[in-house]
Amino acid sequence: MPHRRLRMVAVSHLAVLSLCQGVALAQPAPPQGRPGQQAQPRPGQQAPAAVPTTTPPTAAAAPAPMPQRIEVNDPALAPVPPPARTLASWNDARAMIEQRSVEFAIAVQEVARAEGVARRALAAALPSLDARGDVNHELAGGGAETLPPGIARPPGEPTGAFQDVEDAPTTLRASLTLRQPVLAPRAWYGIGTARRSVDVAKLSLEDRRRITVGAVADAVVSIVTAERVSEINRVGLRSALERLELTRRRERLGTGTKLDVVRAEQDVALARATLVSGDEALRKAREALGAVLGERGEVGVPQGFSLNAIAAEVQSQCAEARADQRADVRAARAELEIAERNLTDAKLAFAPYVDLSSTLSAQTSLGDESTRRARSWGWSIGAVLTVPIWDGGARYGDLQINRAAVEQQRVRLGAVERTAGLETTQAVRGVAVAEQSRAVAEQSRDLARETARLTQVAFEAGTATSFDLVESGRRQREAELDLAVREFEVVKAKITALLASASCR
């Protein structure tokens, strides 16, 4: 029995020595030299005092060999291929927003369209000048035919005869007409309404710029977060593969079981699945940035892209304001004013209007002397008063439509104001929540890392099971991922708080 215990202790010590050689936790080896020779002091360093030893120089023990790290190779450990295009800086992203962003380009054209509508409304109150010209040529004309005396008309011949085509006259007419609205209350009122529509379009463009800048900043932060998560996932997969190799070695030495190997393989499979989903999230984040910037395919950011620089650039472009002064709130107020003006415009459809018209005309005829007419010209001026009386009830229908539009816009304005206030409050509170979550995640990461280290030591000493080892490693990976996400959420929360009530002109 004593010999059997000694044999089991020896086998256990050999197993622990093999496991210790497979991990990178060893201390650096002492400097080598000849037996009995002391290490030479560095320049500027005093030589240590001689310490008496009871071991003879010839019996000095040889230094222990350096433990070797386990080498693992797996195709999944290769990083995700870089995207086709990479943003050089935030200024590059801003230039792409103004040039390629679909939503931003649509908002810009909406301003141009509103300006065109305003110009058309102004034209209804300005004078108009029209020129008109026409040419008339008589192809044939009927008339009474005079017969010479003593000549009778043949039987059956019609009494009328057609003139020759060559003798038909050609008449030229030209006119120039000037019209000026003298009394046009509806047209004059429509000019102010159209100008307010231009203001609404510009406010919508400002709000679209704020939303687009926020979307780009959010996409950039998501890419940086996904890249960090992908890196952590690869570190976790490598650690899982190293634990699997350690477990297999322990099984070959006879100190482990097949169940330990299966548990380690399950841990590797879980780490591999997390890696695959993380890489796909990175690709989707790059594609989302490309979609916001109007690019096809993936758009990435460089490794040294500073998130703090993003916050500084966004703050330089967008000024902080109150929630009730945000662009979309001001646009909603302007749209309510336009709806009320449209109601007034429908009422002005009942008002009479007066147009002043002046026409200058000239006429001449071409032909022989018998058909030529004297040249003539004329100049006339007149005023037309129009009083709308009945149009089948269309104006009453316009009144009803515009009253309903006013009430709808009042409801929309209230909803926009509440949404802006709520978003601003939540965004400001979100910064404090994100910082608190990051502190909690950092503490959990430290605890998980220490738990994994102690479990590794206990497993090597034989006091912990493979289940404890795998579970501690899994929790450490989750804690690392959670901390990485929380760190980037702080930056995202600060940008969101800035843009929640900002004015980006």
Tell me what the structure shows.
Belongs to the outer membrane factor (OMF) (TC 1.B.17) family. Its main location: membrane. GO terms for molecular function: efflux transmembrane transporter activity; porin activity. InterPro entries: OMP_efflux, TolC-like. This is Probable outer membrane efflux lipoprotein. By secondary structure, the chain is of the alpha+beta class. It has a domain of 301 residues: Outer membrane efflux proteins (OEP) (Up-down Bundle). It is built from nine helices and ten strands. The strands form four sheets. A four-stranded antiparallel β-sheet has the order 2-5-8-9, with no helix packed on it. The protein has a two-stranded parallel ribbon with strand order 1-6. A two-stranded antiparallel ribbon has the order 3-4. Helix 4 packs antiparallel against helix 9. The protein starts with a helix and ends with a strand. The N terminus is likely disordered.
Distance between the termini: 88 Å
Give the class-level CATH name of the domain at 83-126 and 185-349 and 413-504.
Answer: Mainly Alpha
Computed structural class: alpha+beta
Largest pleated sheet? 4 strands, antiparallel
Q: Say what the CATH topology of the domain at 83-126 and 185-349 and 413-504 is.
A: Outer membrane efflux proteins (OEP)
Mean pLDDT: 80
Q: In total, how many beta strands?
A: 10
Q: Share of helix among residues?
A: 55-70%
CATH-level-2 architecture of the domain at 83-126 and 185-349 and 413-504:
Up-down Bundle
| CATH H-level superfamily title of the domain at 83-126 and 185-349 and 413-504 | Outer membrane efflux proteins (OEP)
The best one-word shape is elongated
Strand order, biggest sheet?
2-5-8-9
Radius of gyration over all CA atoms, rounded: 46 Å
Strand content: 5-15%
Q: What pattern of helices and strands is seen along the backbone?
A: HEHHEEEEHHEHEHEEHHE
